[in-house]
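Protocol check, entry for the methods section draft. Step 1: assemble the input record (protein sequence plus ligand SMILES). Step 2: submit for complex structure prediction. Step 3: store the C-alpha cells unaltered in the notebook. Ligand used here: S-adenosylmethionine. Step 1 record:
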Amino acid sequence: MTTAYLAAEGFADQLQEELQRAGVAVIRRHERLFICDGPAIAAAWAANIWHDCVELPVASIGSAARALRDIQRNWAMYAPLHHRRAALIEERLPHVSARPIVFPAAAPVAPLGSWTLLAPDRLLAAGRCSSPFANGEVAFVPDKTGPPNRAYLKLWEALVRLGRWPAAGERCLDLGASPGGWTYVLAGLGANVIAVDKAPLDPGVAAMAGVEWLGESAFALEPANIGPIDWLLSDIACYPGRLLRLVETWRASGLVKNFVCTLKFQGATDHEAAAAFAAIPGAQVQHLHHNKHELTFALLSS
Ligand SMILES: C[S@@+](CC[C@H](N)C(=O)[O-])C[C@H]1O[C@@H](n2cnc3c(N)ncnc32)[C@H](O)[C@@H]1O
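Step 3, stored output:
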C-alpha cells in the first residue's frame, strides 16, 4: 500500500521531520509530495494525504485522462514538474468548481482525488484524499472591511474544516484575543465572547454586541471564576508546552465543551509538544492552509 503526503508550501521540512519521527519510510520525494510505504498516519503537517495511491502508465494525454475518469469524476492536479503535459491532461478532465467559500459554510463533501505526473510517462493518482480541497488549499471570499487583521481566516478555516462553529448565544472564551480578528468572527456568529488579552481590542470589535474584554493574562484565569464555556479558543503567542498545560487545566475543570487552539512554533518545530496534543483522546491537530509556522488543535464534544 502506498500513501502520499503533500506538505503546504514552505512546510516540507516539518512534514519530513514528522514522518521520520513516526518511522514512515519515504520511498520517493516529488517536490512537496512524500510518497511512502504503508497505510496513512495522522500527519499534522500534511496539507493533504493521498490514500492507496496507484501508478498508471501514461501512453498518451487522452489515455491518462481516461484512466483518471474511469476511477472517479473529481480530480485535483499537483504539478510541480512536467506542467505542460499535466495541464493538457487536466484540460481533458471534468471541470471541478473551486468557488471561494462564504463563511460560515460546510466543506464540500464530493470525493476529490489527487494526481501528479511523476515522469512524462508515469502518473501517480489517489481517488481518496484527506482534504476536500485541492492540495489542501482553502479559499474564502474575504471580509475586507470588518476584521482588524487576517487572523480571522485561520479561525474560519478551522471551523469550516470541523464542520461546526459557535451558535448564537453560546459562550466563547477567546484567549490572546487582541486585536480581535477571532472575537470579530465569534461575535459575528452571535456568540457571547470573553476576549482575554493584556492588549486592547480594536475599538470596532470591542463595540460589537456580546463582546467583553478582560485585560489580564490568560494563564492567570481560574476556570471556576469564568464558569461553563461552549468554546475555548486560544491564539496566544506562547510556547506550545505552556499552552498544553493551560488546555489540561481547562479540560480537568470539565467546564469547556469545545477547544480550538493555535500551537505556535519559534525556531525549531516542537514535534514532541504537537504529539502530546495529538495524543489527547479525540484531538485533531492539523496545519491549516492559513497557518504560518503553527498547528491548530481542536477537541470537540460529541
Ligand atoms: C497572534 S496574536 C492574536 C491575534 C488574535 N487571535 C486576532 O484574531 O486578532 C497573539 C496575542 O497573544 C497575546 N498574549 C501573549 N501572552 C498572553 C497571555 N499571557 N495572556 C493573554 N494573551 C496573551 C498577545 O498580546 C497577542 O495579542
